[in-house]
UniProtKB/TrEMBL annotation:
InterPro entries (UniProt xref): Ribbon_hlx_hlx
Top-rank lineage group of the source organism: Bacteria
Name of the protein this chain belongs to: Toxin-antitoxin system HicB family antitoxin
GO terms (BP aspect): regulation of DNA-templated transcription
Length: 80
């Protein structure tokens, strides 16, 4: 994806906090702010939900077998 430069002005406390948080996460300030914006716009959540849906589709039969009794009518015996 092509990158676009964005210049913003923030107070020193905000800049310091951004640097500290980025350092604590082992990433650049640019990457840290990019991730914050993605979270705020829902991209991260949407990506998670799509991945979870793919996972469930792939392993649906395993879950059904594990959590359904022999008749297929409810939880397996001994489980609550």
């Amino acid at each position: 994806m092509a990158k676009t430069q964005l210049n913003v002005r923030v107070d020193e406390g905000t800049a310091r906090a951004a640097r500290e948080r980025a350092l604590a996460r082992g990433m650049s300030v640019n990457r840290y702010i990019e991730e914050l914006v993605r979270q705020d716009t829902g991209e991260v959540g949407r990506t998670f939900v799509e991945a979870a849906a793919d996972f469930m589709k792939q392993y649906e039969s395993v879950f059904a077998e594990e959590f359904t009794d022999a008749r297929g009518t409810g939880p397996a015996e001994g489980r609550s």
